[in-house]
């Protein structure tokens, strides 16, 4: 559940995925691309070779018409297999998850194992995997060895989660992914927190507030790029 | 797990405690030209004294101010610089606190995972233990069943050979019994003649002659002598039989194998087909501690096998039973050989000869336990038994019994 206290509502959104699939890159690009009312500095805790050791944190926020401060705290997990305990700890209390998969064909097994671990870890930390807002992003679509989009779509067609294709290094699909997650998060929580009735926020306004006016209006309608 | 997760919104006083404030406050005051105060998010003074005219600069770590730096004496740029400095300090502190809390959480998670894995392992180990126990019990039960069946078959085989033996013995005993009885009835008639002599005593020597008593007297001596010999023969057969009577009484005794072999030969000798002969070639050997009842049984079985092999070959033949001292695999002991010139065995047959229940005889003629039983008994004496055989030439069974030191 999102934290609600002192006139603010805080959502914890976690970027999960196999090692070096581009989770930190997603956050770095979001930091550049988004222009919400409030944007914090990105905090990274990485090792010398640029691998995430604990997590990255990007805080974003805006004020609802009611004056409620809506906060988003975007976290990444460390992708390396050995850090499963850390992954679980970062994942706990998540209000939404982006699964960043590596589209490179040789990474298919890693993707599958990581996704499997995500569902198991959700159960371990008390999250209901099936009702958790979740977006699946296939990153590195620019690679020559990337699995074609049609193949991936065919394979995931039976699943309920939105698919977004991205090249995070260039910033492609990064905002679209985030917007999909914002929508799912809004739908999951709007009623509980009376976002529309009490705070005057509909889905479009929620998304626009988080990504910033300019990008929000341009991109929000066409998220499945 | 800590009640406050690494990802909670860190409050100012969590990042900088009173001790920290006491160290950093005076330094900041000096930098800011004398007057400085630090206020928390709600405007409460944490350190220093708030002056009326003080300017406030917000300290922001994520999105909102978590504290304020206030000074009445500082220039705006000095205040901004000091604020950045303090903000940087708090940010470092926050990174450290988040990382260390997350580390604790992760360690707890890892420990929990290991604990779960361990519990699973213990569970499956227990399962396997139960399974292994059940399996062992089942194997034991089946082995016991097999042993019981084998024992029953073994018993049946023994009864069959006892039957054969009994038939042979009956034949043996019948023969002398027949002539002793006939002798005795002749002698009875002779005695009647002597009784007649009593009535004709006055005729004198003429009567003696007329009754042909000279012949009767001579023939009586022969009759009685033959009868005694016949009874002796029966006595010998009975004595030979005695060594077989203790088959079930598996008593350990000092015995000489030559005696055993002689008994076997004499028990079987009268019972052999006409064209089969037994030849004994026994070297002097010492007595040793063994189960003579069991050994008699094997020797008997082996001689019977040899007889059958000769009968199967359809020609006259002989069974040579020999014993001698020798050395096998560095141990001194007794070799017993039972050699026939019967049908012999093919290598395939030899390979299976010691298998329990393997037989070349028609169904009902034998359970096929002869050689396997023989081997068990020989192994029980720490010895070994093996075959040498050529088809159509004959078979030799060689048994070695080590002499204990």
Explain what this protein looks like in three dimensions:
The complex is a heterodimer of chains A (225) and B (405). Chain A has seven helices and nine strands. The model of chain A is unreliable at 216-225 (pLDDT under 50). In chain A, strands 1, 2, 3, 4, 5, 6, 7, 8 and 9 form a nine-stranded mixed β-sheet that branches. Helices cover 34% and strands 24% of the residues of chain A. The radius of gyration of chain A is 17 Å and the shape is globular. In chain A, a hairpin with a 2-residue loop joins strand 1 and strand 2 (8-16). With 225 residues, chain A is of the alpha/beta class. Chain A has a single domain (3-222), classed as 3-Layer(aba) Sandwich (Rossmann fold). Chain B is α+β, with helices and mostly antiparallel strands. Among the domains of chain B are: 12-117, no CATH class; 247-405, 2-Layer Sandwich (Heat Shock Protein 90), CATH 3.30.565. Helices cover 58% and strands 18% of the residues of chain B. Chain B has nine helices and eleven strands. In chain B, the strands form three sheets. In chain B, strands 6-8-9-11-10 form a five-stranded mixed β-sheet, covered by helices on one side. Chain B has a four-stranded antiparallel β-sheet with strand order 2-1-4-3. In chain B, strand 1 (37-40) and strand 2 form a beta hairpin. In chain B, helix 5 (213-245) packs across helix 6 (257-269) and helix 6 (257-269) packs across helix 7 (292-313). Chain B starts with 11 loop residues before the first helix and ends with a strand. The mean pLDDT of chain B is 85.
